[in-house]
Amino acid sequence: MSRVLVGVKRVIDYAVKVRVKPDKTGVVTDGVKHSMNPFDEIAVEEAVRMKEKKLASEVIAVSCGPTQAQETLRTALAMGADRAIHVEIAGAEYETLQPLHVAKILAKLSQDEKADIVIVGKQAIDDDSNQTAQMTAAILDWPQGTFASKVEKSDAGLTVTREIDGGLEVIKTKLPAVLSADLRLNEPRYATLPNIMKAKKKPMKKVSAKDLGVDLSPRIKVVSVEDPPVRQAGAIVPDVDTLVAKLKEGGHV
Amino acid sequence: MIRPLSLFIFNLNKQNVKTQVKFASTVLPQFSSEKYGVKRKSFGVLQPRDIDYFKSILGEDRVVTDESDVLPFNIDWIKNCRGQSKVVLKPKTTEEVSKILSYCNGKRLAVCPQGGNTGLVGGSVPVFDEIVLNFNLMNKIISLDEISGALVCESGCVLENLDDYVRERNLIMPLDLGAKGSCHIGGNVSTNAGGLRLLRYGNLHGSVLGLEAVKADGTVLDCLRTLKKDNTGYHLKHLFIGSEGTLGVVTKVAIHCPALPKAVSLGFFGVENFENILNLYKRAKTSLGEILSAFEMADNGSVSSTVKNLKLSNPISDYPFYVLVETHGSDETHDSEKLSRFLSEGMESGVIVDGTVTSEPAKMKTIWNIRESIAGAGLVEGYSFKYDVSIPLRNYYDLVELLRDRLKDHQAKVYGYGHVGDGNIHINVIVPEYTKNMYSMLEPYIFEEVAKLKGSISAEHGVGFRKPQFIHYSKDESALQLMKDLKKSMDPNGILNPYKVLPD
Ligand SMILES: Cc1cc2nc3c(=O)[nH]c(=O)nc-3n(C[C@H](O)[C@H](O)[C@H](O)COP(=O)(O)OP(=O)(O)OC[C@H]3O[C@@H](n4cnc5c(N)ncnc54)[C@H](O)[C@@H]3O)c2cc1C
Ligand SMILES: Cc1cc2nc3c(=O)[nH]c(=O)nc-3n(C[C@H](O)[C@H](O)[C@H](O)COP(=O)(O)OP(=O)(O)OC[C@H]3O[C@@H](n4cnc5c(N)ncnc54)[C@H](O)[C@@H]3O)c2cc1C
Questions:
Q1: Contacts of residue A15 in chain B, CB cutoff 8 Å?
Q2: What residues does the FAD-binding PCMH-type domain cover (chain B) (predicted)?
């Protein structure tokens, strides 16, 4: 049976309206509600289902971030993860934390914890980088099954159905392997009350990037963060003739 | 494959009223006058010269006469009532409203004021050929005092737009209801709408600070103050709160907005029986105290049919009853301590069988969406008789059981859900299609039972077109007489929303 490591990121909740900081260095996060990255919820759900199906022996949730990342880890524990590792990264270092850093951390932890499968969300809804799974696989030199919409056990390893442009691709990988969860992989559960209570007592270990020997100096520089262009207001026209006239006027027909 | 975030759709998408209606049957409802056997009163009949006059005030575009364009304004949200109006007027200013009413009063032309048309008692659509006075274009926000929380706006502002606006400024609207994406503040005031958080923020008689209204003869009545306290003479604003457009037309509203809560949590629980809901409510009041902001219930049928019909997903498994408890507070740590004590006590005592709790906005939205969608979910299955009654808590659920028993040999599903904290239950009776027989099985039976239980036959939706003949089950003759006197004095020709609220 395998041990599964799941990466969970704390991001601005997707029901919250995101605001760009006036100095364009990033987005406002102070006092803004955060939640687990929705794709990571799918990753946790998949790992927990593997455990329920007795394909996995243990599920370890990992989050890199400030103290509040522990709330995200508690959510993963309440969903069914067995224990958690909080890689504490705060302040300026957190602001410039990039997928490469996270991948190095996950790779190191996978080795330390003797994980057989690493699952992360295909992307985080804040930076939309879509890099962590791929980089983790590269660093570990493990096979990868990204954009997974179905994961099944096969004799030698896993059969992974991937969402690709224009259809589905089915691949087989050996273990150990890295997976990234796509939207249709599963529908994540809500943490139930008894499990929320139990999660409070599950073990959570705190480590630093330094403990893991990962250098956090930034490799990418954010030049500027801007609001998307505002959509122009529409206009209601009284009839088809006016519509056609307007379209001609605008050179659209 | 990377999909842009805009395609990233869980089932959180706002299932607003418009999208729910889409599911409803496309068959046109019968004319209300025929369905309920009503006789037209001797009002004036619309003439071409009347239309010309309206166009002279409003211009061509805001006088709608095309039959297919007028149709949606003739049909109510539950597709129960259908009027025969020939014209919809869309004023933009109080002066225009005043001119229209003054003219109609002179010509004895009857008028039906209409807000977002989400009313559930047929009050918002004409019965015969009343002129529809629609407030969609009176949608300007006039001012917001961020210190006192006083918002002043025109009556056609959509509740959700107002809420979005004040939230940006750390305030919230004092009311919230499933129809928020469509209903107008003027409609809310005119129906004295209750909604999901009345328990916490009180009703509109408390939070409306002032208003501007136009009387039937066109007189503009200025009671638009933003003061919390103003004991100078009679409190006239209350005449327009809940009078459903029969005493005057509301054109502007001043309303008090409470502070945006910094900490919000939502629990959704499975409960074995109704007794335990009451038990949990008592506990919530004592252990959550001032942070309790909503306490709602729904029976199994309400939730499972909603989830099925609208393809939502239920966050917990199947239980006989569901309870939704929300808290609004100012300190997350304080609130979560209270909440976890409340939860562990609830679980240990077995009152809560299972459930989930979250303070993540997206998850809370998904859970609220289930509760808010119950009102409309039945439309997919057929015809929905809807009742909205207040019953003393001890007997809160009795009526659902009585009805199930009464209808056991019929093809009818009876669902109960509502605002437990306010003693207000909604009952949906879903049948494949409307029949006179089913109608007479339900009414006046339901109202008789409510009267026996000393409840109200209309808790928050109003009387509208559907209930004037039953109002006596809840109001004494002496009260009805004064209502009639008031109507006579404020609208002597009876042009404002006739056939509604008061019995003949
Ligand atoms: C999904 C759903 C959920 C709902 N939930 C609740 C709830 O929780 N609580 C609750 O109380 N109600 C609820 N309702 C009922 C309804 O939404 C409310 O009664 C709402 O306040 C009506 O507002 P409206 O703008 O749609 O008014 P309309 O339906 O257009 O009109 C309602 C009445 O007010 C009159 N009126 C409207 N605007 C004016 C005006 N400016 N001046 C004078 N009279 C006017 C109309 O003539 C009519 O009699 C719900 C409805 C739906 C469809
Ligand atoms: C020390 C002190 C402190 C006060 N603090 C406040 C305060 O904080 N807030 C505040 O609002 N007021 C305050 N007041 C004013 C006063 O106490 C209130 O207005 C109170 O509500 C009056 O009640 P009462 O029974 O004394 O009425 P009365 O003084 O007897 O009558 C007041 C008015 O009501 C009428 N009235 C009385 N009873 C009836 C009835 N049954 N039916 C019809 N009409 C009736 C009377 O004709 C009269 O017009 C205070 C007064 C004092 C002396």
A1: 12, 360-362, 364-365
A2: 81-260
